[in-house]
Amino acid sequence: xxxxxxxxxxxxxxxxxxxxxxxxTFASLGLDISIExxxxxxxxxxxxxxxxxxxxFLDIDLPEMDxxxxxxxxxxxxxxxxxxxxxxxxxxxxxxxxxxxxxxxRKSRFCEEVxxxxxxxxxxxxxxxxxxxxxxxxxxxxxxxxGDILYVECFDKVQHLITRTQTKTIRATxxxxxxxxxxxxxxxxxxxxxxxxxxxxxxxxTGITLxxxxxxxxSRYKLVDTKNAFLELVSAEPDVFxxxxxKP
Length: 248
Hints:
The protein has a 5-stranded parallel β-sheet with strand order 2-1-3-4-5, with helices on both faces. Helix content is 31%, strand content 29%. The chain is of the alpha/beta class.
């Protein structure tokens, strides 16, 4: 599975230096990675209309949008992409918490800190890529990153898998999907539905509302168990999106 990285820095010479070093470090780790460099948030956002990135290396002082605000907006949209800030604005290290970065690299210590940060990202990616739903039907193999799946619904005996970017009709039984997904934080609130708890905004007696506004039905017989399971999952991962930062 190809790993995609975006680097955004408005000073072209600095961007070239940062990009070259990051590419060299990733290459030394033997990762299958695609790295794209951008000198503006606008150009990066335009590219994101057709491509998703797994990691962002961001400056903070960017012309169109503050890097921290951009990172925070990703989190508000439910993105689990890895974020690394590369900035000389060391006084903003704590402000960066709201974007939940994995690392904060100081430009004044770039050469000393970049390799460790890249290795941390590589470790994160190796763990993440193993969390993949693999379905094989009629000789065709499809893979879906589990963290990108919002929910699964059964409609007219056909399963529909809804991710961040697509809706896919799959040939698999609901019991097969339950066996693969329930251990990864999916809830079964109603016959024919599996919901990724990380995308749940609220649970009420009338149904489950996802962060994108989609409503999922909930059986009154499963309401209490679903709420308890959700709370247990959330409490078990109190540090979801918690930052691991280098402090100045």
